[in-house]
Amino acid sequence: TEETLVLVKPDGVARGLTGAILARIEAKGYALVDIRLVEPDRERLEQHYAEHEGKPFYEPLLEFMMSGPTVAIRVAGNRVIEGFRSLAGTTDPTTAAPGTIRGDFGRDWGLKVQQNLVHGSDSLESAARELDIWF
Ligand code: GTP
Ligand code: MG
């Protein structure tokens, strides 16, 4: 079995979608191992999003992630890294498939593609690194 980091980003928490997102994770059969509400400081976010430093959306992304609390979840299951990204849908909420979290609930505010509700680690290496940052 493996573990992944899921974040319900500030837009998801503010819109009251944490429960709906947790329900999908549980319905899929994944296990919630740990969960916490975090108000991340800039340093934590710079670590988390290090790969995006210098990209045009980097600063707005950090600002957005500091706009309110995030729910961090340690989730376990067979192939959960790939499986949660499948539940989440593609990055852009407009084109994310219906039935996915981003496809069903995500909102496109023009350039702010980052309001896509959730984060999920994209590899074993990032999962280990990111779980250390948030837990
Ligand atoms: P995460 O699960 O959050 O990592 O999403 P992802 O893996 O689908 O996307 P990626 O790691 O490439 O980007 C991380 C986050 O940066 C995304 O979830 C978005 O919030 C934001 N982001 C990525 N690409 C863009 C972009 O082109 N424009 C804007 N405004 N935000 C972006
Ligand atoms: Mg990513």
TrEMBL record:
Active site residues per record: 119
EC number(s) reported in the record: 2.7.4.6
Pfam families given in the database record: NDK
Keywords attached to this entry: ATP-binding, Kinase, Nucleotide metabolism, Nucleotide-binding, Transferase
GO terms, molecular function: nucleoside diphosphate kinase activity
Keyword Cytoplasm tagged: no
Binding site for ATP: 9, 57, 85, 91, 102, 116
PROSITE patterns listed in its UniProt record: NDPK (PS00469), NDPK_LIKE (PS51374)
Reported cofactor(s): Mg(2+)
InterPro entries with a match to the protein in the record: NDK-like_dom, NDK-like_dom_sf, Nucleoside_diP_kinase, Nucleoside_diP_kinase_AS
Catalytic reaction list: a 2'-deoxyribonucleoside 5'-diphosphate + ATP = a 2'-deoxyribonucleoside 5'-triphosphate + ADP
CDD domains: NDPk_I
Ranges of residues in domain Nucleoside diphosphate kinase-like: 1-135
PANTHER family xrefs: NUCLEOSIDE DIPHOSPHATE KINASE
Family membership: Belongs to the NDK family.
Protein name: Nucleoside diphosphate kinase
Organism: Microbacterium rhizosphaerae
Taxonomic classification: Bacteria, Bacillati, Actinomycetota, Actinomycetes, Micrococcales
Primary gene name: ndk
